[in-house]
Amino acid sequence: MSATEALSHEAPLTMICGGGRLPLAVANSVSARGRKVLLFPLRGFADPDDFAGRDAYWVHLGQFGTVARIARANGCRDIVCLGSVVRPSVWQLRPDFFTLKVLPQVAKAFRGGDNHLLSSVGRVIENHGFRMMGAHEVAPEILVPVGPLTRAKPSAREQADIALGLDYLRVAGPFDIGQAVVVADRHVLAVEAAEGTDHMLTRVAELRADGRIKAPKGTGILVKAPKPAQDRRFDLPSLGPKTVEGASRAGLAGIAVAANETVVAEAEALVAAADAAGIFVVGVAAWSK
User: What is the rounded CA–CA span in Å between residue 64 and residue 60?
Assistant: First the structure.
């Protein structure tokens, strides 16, 4: 039996979808290999236009009982959570009866960084008979490979900036803060925290406009990598055409991401945008968990 035939005989996959294009890219990839996908877009995060014409079960954050009931009725065991979600407070959840029963565990999970929160919620879900999986496990082709994706490539000087960025992310990883940093001429210009990559790049563009960054345009690298001890089933670094647009506005020379540990939703569009902007995008070896 071929891999495609094997997938077609697998139970349906449940996908809880936040914002951005990545969830649908993964869903399309899984469906193309013959596996049914149950989509659960999150209200307030997923774009209704993206799911127009698709069978989907819209839910609020905190309504896992609804997800579990529908998933079990369809014979689902595997669950993938992906897409952008602004971290809420525990009081902003819309819990159903099931979630109310485990709310003390969920509330405890909020006392820590994003990796702690997601891993803890994952354990709650798995304790109720499901298997959490990473997007890269069900659609491995979305991972960025080693090497340049674009015509432009990093120079030796830029490779030194990439190495510094990776060093910083490795050291900062245990603090569970962010997955990205901007480096120019071995000088850290910005560090990602709660604002996310896109807003960090906007901040770099503003700093350049205000004269706070003296390095000329066309210098500086966005470096992205997962935290060394991160649960790879959740929140792998991602990039897309919007990341390229942000890097271009920020006056950067390129983007370097951890190869085989960073996901890309629209690879062709990303490469086209980067080539048009003269920006390099490269996958680099980072580290293993």
Answer: 9
- Distance in angstroms (rounded) separating the CA atoms of residues 14 and 130: 10
> Contact 67/78 with Cβ under 8 angstroms?
no
Give strand pairing partners of 184.
187
Cross-sheet strand order for the sheet of 78-82: 37-41, 13-17, 78-82, 131-133
- The reported pLDDT for the residue numbered 1 is 40
pTM beyond 0.90: the answer is: no
Q: CA-to-CA distance for 133 and 87, rounded, in angstroms?
A: 20
Single-letter amino acid code for the residue at 60: H
More confident call, 41 vs 236: 41
Residue 240 reports pLDDT greater than 80: yes
With contact defined as beta carbons under 8 Å apart, do 90 and 60 qualify?
A: no
DSSP element (H, E) containing 166: helix 156-172
Element (H, E) at 263: strand 263-264
Q: Are 215 and 188 in contact (CB under 8 A)?
A: no
Cα gap 70→76, rounded to integer Å: 9
Element (H, E) at 202: helix 196-209
How does pLDDT run across 110-147, given as a tens digit for each residue?
666 666 667 777 787 888 889 999 988 999 999 999 99
Q: What is d(CA 2, CA 124) in angstroms, rounded to the nearest whole number? A: 34
- Integer Cα distance of 152 and 155 in angstroms: 9
Domains of the chain (ranges, CATH numbers)? 3-138 (3.40.50.20), 143-284 (3.40.140.80)
